[in-house]
Fold these 3 entries.
Entry 1:
Amino acid sequence: VIETGTPPATDLTSRPTVEERRVIIAGEVRTLRLLRIGERWLASIDTEHGPTLGADHSPYLAAARALEPIGIGLAEAMAMVGPVRPAR
Amino acid sequence: MTLTEPPRTGADDRAVRPRQDALTSALTQFDHAADHLGLGPESHAILRVPKREWTVNFPVPMDDGRVEVVTGYRVQHNVARGPAKGGIRFHPATDLDEVRALAMWMTWKCALVDVPFGGAKGGVTIDPRALSADELQRVTRRFATELQGVIGPDTDIPAPDVGTNAQTMAWIMDTVSMHAGYTVPGVVTGKPISLGGSAGRADATGMGVMFTAARALAEAGRPLDGATVAVQGFGNVGEAAARLIHEHGGKLVAVTDVGGGVANPAGLDPARLKAHLAETGSIAGAPGTDPIDNEALLGLDVDLLVLAALEGQVTAANADRVRARVIAEGANGPVTPDADPILAERGVTTVPDILCNAGGVIVSYFEWVQNLQSWAWPAAQIEDRLEQVIGRAYDAVARLRRADGIDSRLAAHAIAIGRVAEAQRIRGRYP
């Protein structure tokens, strides 16, 4: 069954999981931030134009969207995420 | 080939053991990878089922005057990344569930090697060895006609698979062209070169097996040159893989096919095995060899075991007897999901099927591109580009495997499913 209609409200009282990854992009060490809120993940990395943002149920796909604007492909982005902690 | 020859096969299509349920394997692998990715419920639900399926029943006049009703299938699992791509197999045991599983694997395979195709598969439930060349041609042309409007260079592009070959593709191309009123070479790949087929297509899958196996061996600290190798299956894939591995210094010590097997610790010459196969119908009994059966081959202490027969060959029941350092899955699904953890525990590295045998679809993509451009690339260019594309996919899988501490099969599926899910999301929902 595919969920349709209005998604359930995210429980903002739950403690968010924040993870950071030191990644090397074009020889420069940068920080990929991963934030878990409820069932979803946000990913972000700073660029000269400001921070990017990716959101998804999957931390890997969220990271892929955050890294895509700076030319990082999906497979490389997934490897940058590495193992993620299970939900608390 | 001549019209009187039976079709050569993709993998060795003569099962050496009853098959495991391919669809169960495919869905288990998908669910496992989707869990690892954290795939959302909508993407999970969409990607777990085929997008489109056709079952056709059609009458075929036989040489003796009888009319047989033949059943065929075409399944398009997903087309988010491009036209559907996948082989057509002629096999007496082919059914809709098997075709569904194979179509799903094609989606992942195309996505993993990053060619712009979705996944499809077709099957006709017949035994091609029991039919004359004329009967085969009638089955093929009628099946192609039943798929009128389904297959096409921009929609769904078949290729040879188990029990079909370049001649089969030529008949399909001709049938589609007759209906269109002009020649449509891009409707199929794996055609004869004289009809727009690509150089290197016949050996492409075996070459991909050799390239990926060599990388896996190198990672294990053992170069292909001098590595001991056993090969299960001596059809198009197994024969080409064995020959190319031999040419690159691998020492072939055992090979099996349906008629039996041969072993020689001092090394086997694949050219001689091929000659014996052509003469007798099996490699069994080739001069200067000792007999070996499949179970013994699977348990050989070798550096590389190439599985190029059918699916479900290494299972939980026999995985603990495998002593190879690396398994290369030249066939689709030769290792069942319940065998994977047993092999991992034993330190066996598996090059998963959607990576290992992707050479065929990569060169099919090259053929499709050449057809659309009306341009033929030389064989050396095909080989270089194949190594480049499959090598890039191998490196991506290895990088994720190391980063996440997971096995290659899970890494390969996670990358592939991630790419398809992302394409699906970006395209959006219609309406």
Entry 2:
Amino acid sequence: MYHDMAKKIFVNPVPCTGCMCCEAACALSRAGSQDPAASAIRVTLDPFGGTQRHAYCRQCGSPSCAAVCPQGAIARDEVTGAWRIDLSLCVRCGLCVQACPFGAMHWLGDGPMKCDLCGGSPACVRACAFGAIRFLEHDDPDALFHGIPATEQDPLLGRGPAPAVD
Amino acid sequence: MGGYGGYAGRLLRIDLARRIVEQQDTSDYLPEWYGGRALAARIAWDEIPPGTGAFDPASPLMILAGPLAGTAAPFSGRTTVCGVSAQGYPQEWFTRSSFGGHWASSLKRAGFDGMIITGRADHPVALRIEDGACRIEDASTLRGLGIYETQKRLMAESGGAPWRVLAIGPAGESLSRIAVAATETESAAGQGGFGAVMGSKNLKAVAVRGTRPVPVADPGRFGTVCELVRGEAHASHGWPHEPRLDPERVCKYGQRFQACTEGCSVRCFDARFYTTVPAVLQKGKVLSGQMDCIAGLFPGLPGSFYDWSLGFEAGFEVGQISNDEGLNHWEILVGMIPWLRFLKQDGEISAVDGMEIDLDDPAFWQHLLTGISRREGAMRSALAEGTVRAAGILGIGRERMEQLFPAWGYAGHWDGHGDRINYIFFPYWIVSALQWAVDTRDPISSGHGYGQNIMGWSRICSPDHGLDWDRIMDVSSRVYGTRRSADPLGGYEAKAFPAWWEGVRSVMKDSLPVGDQVFPRIYSRRTDDNFARAGDMEGPDFEANLFSSLTGIDWSTKDLERASARVLQLERALLVRNYHRSRADDECLIPYFERTEHLVNPLLGESAGMDAASFRRVLDEYYDLQGWDGATGRPTRRSLEGFGLTAEADELETRGLLPD
């Protein structure tokens, strides 16, 4: 039975290098091909600013996508805790895609698509060599930064090297 | 398509003069010419006749993404550029280059494995390639712009996936032979002068994006192989330990690891992004950008051979200027600047076009670099031809130039002589010399596997994580067949095979592609015997497993090596047919290597120079491995027909270029 302590994906953008392996692994896992539209996690790169933004499903406690669905087609998976779409109930209204505040619901082919945690072993987490994507119960900073060298942590968060004082 | 996975399925044939865009099935070349450099070799033989210069409108510029690009395969994001090189010396001849960034995956998603561009547009143009279509756009308003601004303007067309842009700067437009084609802030096809080739075609940029899927033949196995390979490859450069960021630069300049190439899954010794660097020349500005690889030398290394002292902030800014102008960093930092400094020391020159040579002054660097890219002043205009040609044009410093440039118009690289950044001593640079001897450019672009790996795993370079020499010899014998190949006291013995094997692997890296700073996987800290393995695969088999599970082409490592060795044969046949390449050419670098190396092998206790007679014997062994004629260094009918290249042998014979 699902409970609130189920694991979900947390992305820590600090150690992310923009390698895009998470997107490719997700697409491969979900679609069996390298279809960029099939990736439930999306990384937006700014090649000139050196930053990455990650759009991914938080598996919210009270998700907007499920709340707006007129068919009740989005429901918790009792084993993994992931919110999953039952496409046999979905009427393709697209409200869920519009409702997600994280940009994590997508339209793929003829219906909506979202992260289902790969049945409990997310491909994006396995693909991230830098520990930027974690499968955790909480977004506890100690867990998010566990194993990441101090120099790669974020001084602005009070972690990592002390800011230089000129 | 024949059902192959990994390939987008189509190639673009673009004639800029006639503004014609046609498409061709990639499968016309598959599986033998399996992508990237392999595919380019086939096209070059078929379509580049003898006498074709780099700037001839008919000279095809090939920009090719291999089957692994744009997939979950780790380290697979590079794009290969091939054509007649502007930088090549003494001849503009066929060669290759490559660049990283996120361009290759976008090209594949646009529905193409590559493009072959001919003709010269009558005004500046850009290509926009998206979802199965290519349009030629006017780029007159981009004329003279730097590489950064060019990209930003072409990326500004919103809606849909982000555009990724390959562009040239003023250096490419002015046909500087050391001009790069680049994407993002520092991912360039640096060596080869292909920026100038683009400029000669009036091609300012190529923008790509798309939404098309790339098929995968065996998704389950491919995914598993990707995860295993990614898990085993633990550090860049094939080295035992991981790099760390600099705490001071993290805080002061926002230093962070940033993949220079899509798919790279290791922290890199070379790739850093900086978000907040105060400009020195452009007061008040704050700069951001990548500072990779050799660009880390811009600030200077006081106390070393590269002992200028710009400091980090000015050095970063000069590097960004060089990126934006579109200039070749390796040429400038390892070749041109040391050459100018020698000339100043020798009293031959004191200034460049009226400005005193002061390598501690960023204003001098700006004067030099922007003047080269825009061909301002007689000296900088000559330097725009590359240092080797400039020495001839200006009639100065030829002997000094010959201390820095082994051959073919390229500055030293992992050679123990001209390149003093990389730590390699005798006898290991004998393999480098062989790689240089039979190539058309600096071979180390995709040829780091031997010297860099051995030195990096030695306790000299890695006192905390390295291996003793016996273990290094044990591991290397798994790929080179004998411990003597990596023996620090091995002299000239068993050096031909590593040069051949790394040459084959170089083709593989440029064709699949996989990253040169990680592949081939040989040494590992994850196994008891330090030989790389993952699952039931051995390290040198990773490439074939990635390729076969992705494409469905059931090739073993031996099959993939054979296909890559075939490429080496065809490239050599092309060199002979088009440029009459011979053994005498290969040996031209002997005097460079006869000079005493700049390091000392501690087990020998003294520095060495090349012994010409011994090297010639090693070259004999190399030719034997290739099946080439010992007297001329040319492919034989037997060596070519061994790879099914009978028609090519016939053509060489017709031209009187096939050895008896």
Entry 3:
Amino acid sequence: LVNRTQMYKGILEGCVIKILSMGSLFSQEILHALRTYGFEDMSEGTLFPLLLRLEKEGLFTTHKVRSSIGPDRKYYSLNENSQEELKRFTEVWTDFQEQVNRIMSAEAAKDE
Amino acid sequence: MSSKKDFLHLQKANTKNEMTLMNKLRKDNALKGKSLIGEYKNAFRSIKKRLIEDVQPGSDRENALSDIMDLLQSASIEGKRIPEIFPDGTDIFCDDLLEAMPIYTSESKHSMKTKKNILALFLSFLLVAVIASFAIWYFGIWGIHTKGISYFAGNEKFTYSGIPVDGEFSVLIDLSDPGSNIGKVLYDAEGCSIVVSHIDLQDVNGGGYRIGFRCHGKYSGNGALLISGSNYEAVTPQNYIITFTANMSAEYEGVLYESEIMGTDSLLNKDGDAFYFYIFPRIAFKNNEISITEKGTVLITVSDLTRNIWSRKI
């Protein structure tokens, strides 16, 4: 439970899809966005397998763009599948969040 | 029927396209891999090793490797250290990665291991065969095996020396029973021997009593030794001259006769040669000192033998 990396796995997938709903991004931009939103301990080593997994599940379309300062950049974009997935994730996450919040609030009240 | 054919054709084309794509990816990856240095290169190596061990070959694996290389290249340019990129280590990274990759089943891993073992065994056999062939060629093992001592004579890979053998060597020959003399030993030392191998009787015009000696030498990959009635001096590569060196005398009923040379077999036998003499000179028959009906014992003495030595050049 305390292993944040394990806890993040499912949630992160939803977050990455959500971030990409704003437009095509390459991995460094996704990482930057995640860190900006507070996932400060996110690393390339955690994000890369996640992106690969989602890509293999057919949730992304990708294309490469030449970069003047390094290797080609692989851009990730959402497709119909990921739009559906995002919808499902939003529903599940909202329910989950409410349930967790209810438990936490009730238990906090008891403690007081 | 035709749709099945079309399907097979399409499948074949897809497989071909997949192979072409995979080969291109491999080539690109090999090129890209060269640009990685230091810790990035080491990290890539350990990830690649794990992927090759656990993931089935194909474009999925090559694409992942290509993307990982891009990731490491970017990190290298930005000056990010490996522990920043893989805070949990490359092993955990690979564990995560494998969840999205076509990994080997235990059966396919076992089958691959078996195939690898068979290939390794085949390659080992091939290597042994190549080394053995080289050794056979280099050391002339085949030539020695098939030709024996004649392989060394005139062979430029070997030095030759023909040294006169000191002393005289004798054997008693019973003329009443020529066949009984076969096998009598004239010389036996250093693993070499000379034995009576032939004795017959011709008419006077044919030279009368004739005797032959078979010389047995010894040889190995490093050279040969033959005590013989002939000298095998090398003249040019692959050529040698045979010089008959032996002399023979026959002492019969108190008279000493100088035997006449009849000839030599050269190196027709793998382990040596042979040489022949007329026991009594023709003049002895002419002078009626000797007839072709002699029944006594003759003491044959051979001298001026040659020690033929061939040694591998260093």
